[in-house]
Amino acid sequence: QVQLVESGGGLVRPGGSLTLSCAASGRTISRYTMDWFRQASGKEREFVAAITWNSGTTRYTNSVKGRFTISRDNAKNTVYLQMNSLKPEDTAVYYCRANGDYWGQGTQVTVSS
User: Fold this and answer.
1) What is the spatial distance between Cα 17 and Cα 38, in angstroms, rounded to a whole number?
2) Is the C-alpha dihedral spanning 36, 52, 6, 113 positive or negative?
3) Which of 13, 83, 89, 96 has its CA 20 to 30 A from that of 26?
4) Tens digits of per-residue pLDDT, 51-84?
5) CA–CA separation, 101 vs 87, rounded Å?
């Protein structure tokens, strides 16, 4: 079993930045593809970004390309999502996922003036 804990969410003004972390325990995630998803109130959960086990490939949904960066530190068993130029439409609960199977509890990101 893998336990995932997201952190780093909060309230930020439009144009601001946040870095989310997803810390894994119970098992190494070094061989897993890791993803970030988000779910806005009243909407379905949507894919945001993904990174392969060796950081060789990253993928982003179109709405965050050029603003968000996914990265990982396998030595720390942690994945990150750097979010810049945040917009109100980025407001959501952000979740990380490991290997397509394991989910964290989410962290709230609110972008508002």
Assistant:
1) 16
2) negative
3) 83
4) 998 878 999 999 999 999 999 999 999 999 999 9
5) 29
